[in-house]
Amino acid sequence: MTVTTDEAAEIAGVSPVTVRSWVLxxxxxxxxxxxxxxxxxxxxxxxxQREKRSGAWVTRHAEAVARWDxxxxxxxxxx
Length: 79
Prior knowledge:
It contains four helices and two strands, in the order E-H-H-E-H-H. The protein is mostly helical.
């Protein structure tokens, strides 16, 4: 599954600016370079957030993922 920059930011518990900076530094690869809007594989976002964040952040991330998953369930979509 792919996610937008805003969705990646919510999942990772960071701002969209941070997600874009990860792309510029090569920490996070978009599905297709040059495509607009940028889209990312969910698994790649999760990997980068694990590499970058502290323990306190992990709690915030779990809460964001739960909210995001609840939204998917409400719309009938799956991750």
